[in-house]
Specification:
By secondary structure, this protein is of the alpha/beta class. It is built from nine helices and eight strands. The protein has a four-stranded parallel β-sheet with strand order 3-2-1-8, with helices on one face.
Amino acid sequence: MGVKGEDMGYRGFIPGVKYLLDINNGEDPYPEGKKVVVVGGGNVAMDCVRSSFRVGKPDVHLVYRRTKKEMPADPVEIHEAEEEGVEFHYLCNPSRILEKEGKVVGVECIRMELGEPDASGRRRPVPVPGSEFVIETDILIPAIGQAVDFSFLEKKGDFAITKWNTFEVDQETFETNVPGVFSAGDCETGPDVLVRACGNGKRAAWKIDEYLRGEKPKARMSEKFVKFFGDVKVYDRNENVGFLGDRARHLLRPMAPEVRKWTFDEVEEGFRTDEAIAEASRCLRCYRIGMIAVG
């Protein structure tokens, strides 16, 4: 976060990924803490605030330096966090960690205003002088994203690196510009979801296998179809053709926020039999794929 005190080892200062790892292992990361402040606006931050309720923390806040519109987190995650009672503090940023006897007791924040766009295309937050305020807390969690750790490389300069500080690779083979070196996952895409990293890792493994067998790595037919259907835009959200019988999509009913926020159980109820039949009978326009493939 770049604020005074974050490297002092205060009790209650817990990085977001470490916080979530402890919870995933069935532990309360800091049992004596009941007030939580999470700093960040991505999905890791959303996981931290929502998981905090589920390990018994009743007072949860999120601090984000831009507005809700600029938050990179999944809109569904933001909406459900709001429903569950997370208190959002937009356009503010931590400026100082408050501690007492080696424990976090609060965080001083400063209000921000949006200036000119930065390299990401989003408007850069600018501090407003004299606007500092304090949020009392026992736990402070920075969840502001991660960066690629290139320390394992002897010569980073040999590799082509993107402006986002990730490996530049061939998008079909995952090869870097250095022969015999492949890259997939967050070090190629930047911070992303686990399932995409796993999928790309598997695809990269196919290419590595081909390379080790002396073959030229190439895209598989299934991968070409994925790219093809993406390029031809099989599904157009703006297409207004209606659904068969004008049946709209059935939405799963979520558990009430005041109930689900305290549990890690599945929070969406399944369909009733009649709803499942109705959902399965809707026209999903599969014919369009067939028409494109034939055409």
